[in-house]
Design goal:
mainly alpha, 14 helices
Length: about 270
């Protein structure tokens, strides 16, 4: 256990400043969203503007005038978790780590140094999985901390409950785990950080495109189940204080599949030691 703590601590310290900057960015962004929600709820002109937007634009921005009318500020808050900026910030934390923790270290030769010490391949891999879990939890916490701060300052009490916050954290963490786990699996087979990040960001972009335009183009509607984002719905946590167990399970299993595939590949791979 001591060796594992040392490995996890070392992995967390690498790129710590960048990770902290990304997490702070998530906090600030999500803290700002309730201010916009307050404006939308109190400004009838803005509501009219949103209602006048074409369905395609509403789908792209994840704006639903009916939710804003019936649920008030809570109807807008989910936009903060489907916005491209949040998705990029959250994905960068886990994707960046997963890419450099295996592919980066293998390509740079530092993995050979790690394995020259009294630690097995599986032990080294497990340390990376545990670190990824910590980062996924941190991404979820950054989001809900930002929302909590913004709601406390800009919106009336009772708009968002503790149950909303907990379920939102679970939803965000599951999405971060799905992307991080799949990236870790790809990273175990590569030797270049840039190549893995490029692959992962490309998949994220495709998922975003498919999920956001599926409601306005029947071709993409049929492809929507292959998008990871199709199983990610923060609006349920924020508006109805519920989560879809089947969707949550899909995200968890996707991340687990990536992690297990990565373990098999890394355990059998020739690292030129």
């Amino acid at each position: 256990m001591t060796t594992m703590r040392v490995l996890v601590g070392r992995l967390l310290r690498r790129g710590l400043s960048g990770t902290v900057a990304l997490l702070i960015g998530i906090v600030l962004f999500e803290a700002f969203v309730p201010w916009i929600a307050h404006t939308l709820v109190t400004g009838t002109d803005i509501n009219s503007f949103i209602s006048a937007l074409p369905p395609q634009m509403q789908a792209l921005a994840r704006l639903n005038p009916e939710l804003i009318k019936t649920d008030g500020a809570r109807g807008f808050l989910p936009v903060g978790y489907t916005d491209p900026l949040f998705l990029v910030l959250a994905a960068t934390v886990t994707i960046g780590f997963a890419a450099r923790a295996l592919a980066g270290e293998i390509g740079g030769g530092t993995m050979a140094l790690t394995l020259s010490r009294p630690v097995s391949r599986r032990g080294a891999y497990l340390a990376r999985v545990l670190t990824l879990i910590v980062l996924c939890v941190a991404v979820g916490l950054a989001g809900v901390i930002g929302t909590s701060i913004g709601v406390a300052i800009a919106l009336p009490a009772g708009v968002v409950s503790a149950t909303n916050i907990v379920l939102l954290w679970v939803t965000i963490t599951a999405l971060a785990w799905a992307f991080g786990g799949l990236t870790l699996g790809a990273s175990s087979a590569a030797s270049s950080t840039g190549r893995v990040i490029g692959w992962a960001i490309g998949v994220l972009a495709i998922c975003y495109f498919v999920d956001y335009f599926a409601s306005v183009w029947w071709v993409l509607k049929k492809l929507q189940p292959i998008s990871i984002l199709a199983y990610y719905d923060p609006s349920k946590a924020l508006i109805t204080a519920t989560v879809d167990g089947s969707e949550l399970l899909v995200l968890i299993l996707l991340g687990l599949a990536g992690v297990l595939a990565g373990l098999i590949i890394f355990d059998r791979r020739d690292l030129l030691l």
